[in-house]
Amino acid sequence: MLHFKKTVLPIALLSALALICLSGCGGDAPDYTDAENWAYLEQTKPADADVFFVCPTVYGGDEASPNMAMDDDETRASFVGATNMEKGIYDADARFFAPYYRQAGLWVYSQPEAEREEYLALAYEDVKASFQTYLDEYGGDNPIILAGFSQGADMCLRLVKDFFGNEALADRLIACYAIGWQLTEEEVSAYPQLKPAGGEDDTGVIITFNTEDPGVTGSLTVPEGETTLAINPLNWKTDLTPADKSLNLGACFTNYEGGIDSEIPQLTGAYIDPDRGTLKVTDIDPADYPPSLDLFEDGVYHLYDYQFFYKNLQQNVSARTDAYFSSAADDAA
């Protein structure tokens, strides 16, 4: 099992690393005023809120091609498919924006952090550019939900660090769903705009968790000996209060078209581990939900972070959006 230590890197350093990589990773930087560089660009859908979604890793990659090429049609199709698997959680009452970007391939995550960061920094340069284009060209004054999973969650946290120290923009943030990635006290201290969620309907906050079996002591996203912040998506508590599986509104196993292949109400309960801060599930047999990727050991349910809690997350997006608009109406009164 590979363990990587996470550090807080200044945004300026991330940008410099990306510039180093520009000539050899994934081709030229995309132009996000071109609709071809968006998996979803819902400019005309009537809605009062927007979702800016960053796709998880779908590209394999290797040492010669560590970052996805923007003209890789096969990976672009997987990009849309992976986005569709989670889109239904977010877009009932919102426009949906999802850029293609030169994401780091799975190969990158087998490298030590010091060596993989240049490829992740390049991916972030694209995400940053696409978000800036969204703000300049498409967003207007709409409130924003940031959302991503795995690498996409990492990219969303970087966006919050880079953009949402601006008070006017921070006031537009409904929430950031950065699921399947680590968020540390060190980062929150360094970037006050990273506000961990404390309940079911607070706004302008980060929602994150990493799901695993009680016996797991380390993973790629939360290495052994490290601690992450989390909120339990079943009871929306950040303390050690366990949530029974009766609170699970429905695990949904989705496909690349966005359809639900199977739905299992009350699949599992969960509690937050007091030492790791990870989300431990109480009613899952690891043999039934294998990790599928060599990067993860048995009992690391990274690929199921969204799936196990799909209906709870869907309901929560609606609750936080309603709370945001209710607060805005009170402020205007």
From TrEMBL:
Q: Does the keyword Amino-acid biosynthesis apply?
A: no
Keywords per UniProt: Signal
What is the top-level taxon of the source organism? Bacteria
Pfam families listed in its UniProt record? DUF3089 (PF11288)
Q: What stretch or stretches form a coiled coil here?
A: none
Q: In the record, which residues are listed under signal peptide?
A: 1-26
Name of the protein this chain belongs to: DUF3089 domain-containing protein
Q: Which organism is it from?
A: Candidatus Ornithomonoglobus intestinigallinarum
